[in-house]
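Researcher: We're teaching a course module on how sequence relates to structure. For the next exercise, students receive a sequence and then see the predicted structure as tokens, so they can try to spot secondary structure elements on their own. Here is the exercise chain.
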Amino acid sequence: MKILIIEDDSGLNRGISFALGQEGYETISAQTLQEGESLFEKEKPDAVILDLNLPDGDGVVFCKKIRQLSGTESETAIVMLTARDLETDEIMGLTNGADDYVTKPFSVSVLKIRLQNALRRKSAAHGILTDSGAQRHSCHEASCSLGEMSREEAEHRITSGEIVLDTKTLRAFSGGEELNLSMTEFRLLQYFLENRNRALLKEQILRHIWDADGNFVEENTLSVNISRLRKKLSGNYIRTIQGIGYLWEEKQ
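Model: And here is the predicted structure for the students to work with:
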């Protein structure tokens, strides 16, 4: 797998390249948008790790260009890596074609997993099997039984009805199909599953997901994310408790 890294911080660029190289990826690097576009056309990478604040332009514009291309190049996996940490920035990135959105500062281990997931989703969409640096399992990852999983794998699985959450690989499934969740949506889903059949106050959710110190973002941010998560889930799991908060109803 060939990964194009477009990041103007040379130290960070080298660090990501080294970490991905250790996982068996082939990496190519650019520090400007112009250089990145040139390498994209020449190398035709399988994925792009894209900074948004580049010295000669906005990475969102480049992402939109990729999605407007014809052929397989338009379906290149794109993981945005940026210091823009506002909810509106994440929404803009995802709605303009990014497969995932990672904010700085970040964990390299998490970045690698998010990249693997983005590549896996793209491959699955075309019926291509690839391990992309990750181990493969003999049973279906979302539906294998506890008896077929190792004890370690089972410890990282949370299930509710048709929903399966893997807290180690940061992947989520609904009815056997992988969900394309942002990190915020994943954390929100995990919090619900860990508190199933328990009413959660809006303030509790805001504190846990966004700010442990109580400096909350706007309450509307929660309702927007709840709405987005509901659309991606099969089944009405999240119930609104008027004036109080939300409840994850366990399906029998």
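Model: If you want an answer key for the exercise: The chain has two domains: 2-125, 151-248. Residues 128-147 have pLDDT under 50 and may be disordered.
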